Amino acid sequence: MEAIRNYVEALFAALPQREDVLRVNADMLANLEDKFNALLDEGKNEAEATGLVIASIGSAQELRSELDLDTESAEIPSEPASKTVDPALAEEYRQYQERKHVLIAVAVALFILAPFVQNLFSSILSIDAIGTFLFFVMVAAGVVICILATRRNAYYRELFGLSREDDAAR
Length: 170
Hints:
Elements: H1 2-13, H2 19-41, H3 46-55, H4 60-66, H5 87-124, H6 128-150, H7 153-160, H8 164-169
């Protein structure tokens, strides 16, 4: 559930920290927790439930549209009041966050679909070697996508003066 909570917090990070946005954030977390627990009750393991819940979350753009937020008015969260951020840099960061979330969703989808592809080739087509090969290719592709999606985190942390403690406080 912690991965889901982190994903939702990252999704809301680029949005203004207004009362209505915070309320939607809390409601979404509660609904996703219920969905996660329901999947666990259905017999899914924690990783499967996490993947399915994260895959069901819409994009940041859909969220902005739902909340009637202007995409250009996005604010950078946890920004010290004394520090000003270049608007171009803030927009770059917002775009990076959107791309990162889409890439992570694609990676999760690859992780979820890999066993099904392997099962398809192994059970239905009786070609074990190809199914196993495709399984590992899909998992490797998902890992590479995750690495590529998050490789600029340290850059933005340094620019905005964020640390791991700042993440824990949010």
